[in-house]
Amino acid sequence: MEAAENVVDYWLTGAGQTAGYMFGEPLFWAAAGASMVAGFMAPLPYNYWRLRKRQVPTIATIAVGT
Are 10 and 32 in contact, with CB atoms under 8 Å apart? Predict the structure, then answer.
């Protein structure tokens, strides 16, 4: 997860603050948002598979009551 965030951040900003992008730059915040999305999406397939393998109920099934 952290590796995915770092790769996207470095890819979009060209090594981040060492390239001169600071907190006020729109590119910094766009890269931060994109890297957070990448960090969220990276572990989803594994987590989904692991929950299905162990038959752990998800939030949706708990809310419905089935």
Answer: no
Tell me if 10 sits within 8 A of 36, measured CB to CB. no
Gap between the Cα atoms of 18 and 25, Å rounded: 13
SS (H, E, C) 1-66: CHHHHHHHHHHHHCCHHHHCCCCCCHHHHHHHHHHHHHHHHCCHHHHHHHHHHCCCCCHHHHHHCC
Q: What pLDDT, in 10s, does the model give residues 25-66? A: 787 788 888 888 998 888 888 888 887 787 776 666 555 555
